[in-house]
């Protein structure tokens, strides 16, 4: 799932993550030992569902860069065109993201702002990992997505409750994809999003 060309860049990313995590706690220290599976592979599966097709990607609440930086690395490794935009309100995390982007020469940018305040991005692909419940994500998608956009949201075993709650205020089409890293998890593929009147 991760190409030979991407592997050295992911190794560099992991080295930076390990170094910076001491100072600003980007991820739980316990998960660093499993970073290749827990973070990289979990993010890479999103790429293989749709990222290669997207011209412009927005990663909401990027944190340590999952999945946004992994998407940007895989896109570079495959020579795909189009930038990845990472929206992150925490300035220290944004500095980390910018450092990785610079050192790996990725086609990506960081917007340091809250998702609901950042300028609308009109992206054709939206993603967010471990950020918020689906009803909230739908509101973020409405702000930052092109009308024909596709969103990919990894979710755990309680995803059905989130979908049911979201459908109270939103209409959307949805596909379910099994997670390759969580036997109880799924990736929700959302499109044709419309707010109910």
From TrEMBL:
Catalytic activity of the protein: guanosine(527) in 16S rRNA + S-adenosyl-L-methionine = N(7)-methylguanosine(527) in 16S rRNA + S-adenosyl-L-homocysteine
Entry keyword set: Cytoplasm, Methyltransferase, rRNA processing, S-adenosyl-L-methionine, Transferase
Entry function: Specifically methylates the N7 position of guanine in position 527 of 16S rRNA.
Gene3D superfamilies: Vaccinia Virus protein VP39
Subcellular localization(s) per the UniProt record: Cytoplasm
GO cellular component: cytosol
Sites where the protein binds S-adenosyl-L-methionine: 61, 66, 115-116, 129
Signal peptide: none
Taxonomic lineage of the native organism: Bacteria, Pseudomonadati, Pseudomonadota, Alphaproteobacteria, Rhodobacterales
EC code(s) of this entry: 2.1.1.170
A Pfam cross-reference name: GidB
Main location: cytoplasm
Name assigned to this protein: Ribosomal RNA small subunit methyltransferase G
Family: Belongs to the methyltransferase superfamily. RNA methyltransferase RsmG family.
Top-level EC class as recorded in UniProt: transferase
One GO MF term attached to the UniProt entry: rRNA (guanine-N7-)-methyltransferase activity
Keyword S-adenosyl-L-methionine found: yes
């Amino acid at each position: 799932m991760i190409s030979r060309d991407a592997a050295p860049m992911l190794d560099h990313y992991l080295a930076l993550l390990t170094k910076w995590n001491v100072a600003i706690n980007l991820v739980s220290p316990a998960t660093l030992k499993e970073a290749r599976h827990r973070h990289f592979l979990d993010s890479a599966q999103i790429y293989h569902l749709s990222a290669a097709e997207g011209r412009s990607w927005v990663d909401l609440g990027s944190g340590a860069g999952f999945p946004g930086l992994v998407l940007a690395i895989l896109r570079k490794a495959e020579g795909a065109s189009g930038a990845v935009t990472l929206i992150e309100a925490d300035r220290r995390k944004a500095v980390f993201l910018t450092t990785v982007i610079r050192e790996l020469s990725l086609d990506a940018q960081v917007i340091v702002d809250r998702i609901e305040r950042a300028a609308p991005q009109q992206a054709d692909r939206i993603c967010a990992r471990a950020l918020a419940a689906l009803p909230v994500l739908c509101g973020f998608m409405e702000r930052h997505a092109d009308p024909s956009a596709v969103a990919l949201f990894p979710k755990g075993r309680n995803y059905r409750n989130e979908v049911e709650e979201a459908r109270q205020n939103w209409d959307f089409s949805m596909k379910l994809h099994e997670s390759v890293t969580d036997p109880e998890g799924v990736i929700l593929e959302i499109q044709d999003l419309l707010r109910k009147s």
